[in-house]
Give the backbone structure.
Amino acid sequence: MLRLKDTIERCRGRKLARLLALLACLFYLAIPSPAAIKFDRTYNIKGQAHLTVANINGAITVTAWNRRAIAVSAINEPSAAIAEQVSGDEISLTVKKAMPPGKVSFQIFVPADTDLRLNNYLGRIEVRGVRGDVSIKSYDSEVHLIDAAIPSVDVNVTTGSIFFDGDLTGDGPYTLQTLNGDVDVSLPATTSFQLSTRALSEKINLGGFLNSLSSENKAPKSISGTHLKGGPRLSLIAFTGRILLHKK
Amino acid sequence: MMPATVERSEPVSDLDLVRAAAAGDAAAFEQLYHLHNRRVYSLCLRMLSSGTQAEDMTQEVFLQVFRKIGSFRGDSAFTTWLHRLTVNQVLMHFRKRGVKLEHTSEEGDFTNVVETPLQSTRRISMVDRLDLDKAIGELPPGYRTVFILHDVEGYEHEEISGLLKVSVGTSKSQLHKARMRLRDLLKSKH
Amino acid sequence: MNCQECEEIISDYVDGALEPGAQTKIEHHLANCEACRAVRDDLLQIVHFSKQLPLHIPTSDLWSRIQTEIEAEQPKTWWARSKARLQNLYGRDFKFSIPQFAAIAAACIIVAAIGVVVWQKNNSQVPQFANAAPADNQLQTKLANDPSFQEFEQTIKQLKESVEQRKDTWGPELRLSFERNMTSIDQSLNDCRQLLSRNPNDETCKELLKNAYSEKVRVLQGFANF
């Protein structure tokens, strides 16, 4: 009988020890790590969303999803604080300038028709599946626009390549400019556009569009012309990189 | 005798710039650097897989160009001469450090074709192209060198065989293994 | 032909390097084997895209490093060559008395003076890595006369001052990025100027030069706002 009581006591003691260990773990996890702070927000969207993100140092990845909400998950160093401004469906997230500026990586999910305005100093920018207008200004970024069936786009980077794989679905304009990097565009064979390209150091490679473009100007470093019915203006400018077009 | 200088009123070819640089025109040499540094650096970076080493190598290549520019006779394109010089510099670097190019530690252990999922309609999109660039850096040095020389730089197996002092058969087999390894690496990223 | 045999020669097939007999055999196998077709298509794509890999950019200071090396090397090689030639002629090293040294110095000055006259007539025989080529100087004057570029230059000067004051507080990563951007822009500006100096009527180039100036202002403004 005594042994049974002992056993019960021991079991209770073990349970208590486990519970305490679990609580300690939860407590530890609840304290934010000094190396990284997590910024998590979900904004419900009624109409068409306009999202502005102004980062300084770090990646911005935006992916379209089927929900009518914008979900933002950012990991930031303690020295970088994110300021948010919400006015209806207009959302603006700005990394506050600090000395020295901390690193922030944004992972964002948006309804496909969201208009995007992304600004950065340094860090890769990737946009997937978006159908709204896109404006990207950065200094030192590789920019990837993937599955981008968008009505207009304006990308301007100083250093870094720009990759566009998608379709031109609106009136444009579609402008992609980099001073140091390639401009690499993949479009369906059926897309109509008015092309204007300027390259400084490298030749322009029209790929599969070479023969289907009725050219107005075909100098090796400045090609302009009409593809099929013409329409939206597609301007590609690369200073020290290449301009490459691919027919899908 | 009139010295060879860059004619400023019309577009200048590499050969004009080379002649002017060889005759002492520093601006012409600088222009050659600006025109070709990215290609030289990219080749070095791909072969060496290290940004710092690639910059050091690019520096060495252009110093060699400066020293040897008078010996360029214009029999081939300047870019060909420059690429050859770059490749030789990198290979010399490998030799000095005892990097074995003729063997790799993991010969022939890529996926068997029969087990490969069917992907005949898959198209490598531009994202894969960037992945391809990264995947090349993950190849063992032997595969990587042959792959870069043949598929990226357009060398023939006979030339590679001469440069690397291996047989044509070895060059071919290294290339095939490199391609199959790349295929595996690219697949694992998707 | 089985899959193993096909795989052994598929790279040669992709490169178009097979004998007609082997080519017919592999094509027959490929027509009936989807797995091998997938390999062929993937290899074709790898080979195709390997020709179009993006170019990488070295960091900002590489050219100045090369320039420094060349400048350091030039007098050394010139001196070494001259000295070797003289030693070959006389087979011994040289020791000069003060009057001898003065005479040599005077001779050098006279030779240098003649040299300058000849140089001015003919052009330089020794690379001088100055910041701007003579043609650039002419262009600079032209740009200075052009109100819009003068404005750019002025704005750039002001912004640069403000950026210089803030630079130390950015941290190494952003500082490096700023330098990289400046190098990109200065290289583009330089390329544009050189092309324009050769063909002043190149409208594309004029347009790009303006873009590069605007870009410089944009970057400096961005970094001055810290």
Notes: The interface with chain A takes residues 34-35, 38, 123, 125-127, 129-130 of chain B (CB under 8 Å). Residues 1-10, 104-124 of chain B have pLDDT under 50 and may be disordered. Residues 14-96 of chain B form a domain with the Rna Polymerase Sigma Factor; Chain: A fold (CATH 1.10.1740.10).
